[in-house]
Amino acid sequence: MTGRSLHDALLRVLTDAGLRRRLRDGDPAVAEALGGEEAGSLRRADPERLRRLARFFARHFYRERIVRLFRYGRALALAAGRDPLGVLDSVELRALLDEAVLGSPATAEAVARLVEAELLGALADRPFGSALVAYEGAMFRVEAGPRGWRAPATPRDGLPVRSPHARLLDLEWNLIPLIAALRAGAGEPPEPPREPTRYLLALSPYGRVTSLRCSAPVARLIEALDGQRSVVEAAATAGLGEAQARELVARLTELGAVEWRAGSG
């Protein structure tokens, strides 16, 4: 056992409630996950102190993500005298954090629901409020997808397929002008245009979340990428030219909305 290996094992235990429970209960399989000496050392630690430290760690982890990914809804809520960060001190969130696996889609879903409920109340008098909450909630959930930490795959790796972690989100409001105004620091931003708008949200292999307004042809192309069609075949289905489709697929691959997988033959 080294200081580094013990540090890594502690981080795993602090970020995974299920692993902490198994460690506390003496599950022998934990030794395989953490290392025998590391598991033995952590098993001797006070479980209550581990729980409190894990909750502290999780609270800061999700605070950063709420601030960043619910940025615009929070700005409007603050103007109304309410801060959605108040959920961090709620009984519901404290109980949730005691069962959390940090960064997991399941925990992100549960945290997002608590934040969304707070924001919906704060923005109830804004007709576009629910759309903004849905948009930022989707961003929060997409960000919880898995990291590849590698360069995107290429056409040499097979056939293109829409990433299971990418989302097409249809809303009745075009939020782009609102977000631009809030980003620029507008005190009271203009009401956004009420027009049906489709957004593409994706998580790159490097962990960056991107949101783009998605046109109908691009949406058709994404939906045609099923891992069975080539780019040429998907382009024909979407009504796009081959060169345009190849350029779009390359860009979508960079964003994480498209992956490349071995074809079925």
Strand order of the largest sheet: 2-3-4
Q: Biggest β-sheet: count, sense, barrel? A: 3 strands, antiparallel
- Under the CATH scheme, the architecture of the domain at 147-265 is Alpha-Beta Complex
Classify the beta-strand content into a percent band: 5-15%
Helical content band: 55-70%
Briefly, what CATH class of the domain at 147-265?
A: Alpha Beta
Quickly give the structural class.
mainly alpha
Number of strands: 5
Could you give the distance between the termini?
48 Å
Number of helices: 13
CATH topology of the domain at 147-265: Outer Surface Protein A, domain 3
Query: What is the helix/strand order?
Result: HHHHHHHHHEEHEEHHHE
Unreliable stretches (pLDDT < 50, length at least 5) are none
Let me know the average pLDDT: 89
Round the Cα radius of gyration to an integer and report it. Answer: 22 Å
Shape: flat
